[in-house]
Amino acid sequence: MPNLALCFLLNKFTGKKLRHQKFSNVWTVSYNLACYCAQLGRLDECQNWFKRAMSIDELAVKRAAVDDPNLKPLWDSMSGTLWKRTE
Q: Which member of 2, 22, 27, 41 lies 3.0 to 4.6 Å from 56 by CB, making a disulfide possible if both were Cys?
């Protein structure tokens, strides 16, 4: 589960969209921002971060995301869409 204190701080002090520039080619940074946004209920932003992470390393992101409970809010919001998990 994401660090709840960090989630609180991100929510409290960032009325703006979350950004990262220094590590823009590291998939884990975008992926973790997607997880934090999902936990904060910022699902549009979460989806954007998730797509960014996928564009950097699709296979690694799929492996990490398949059972990650931090992304459950995202998956729940997408039920009935083309983003369904296939097994």
A: 27
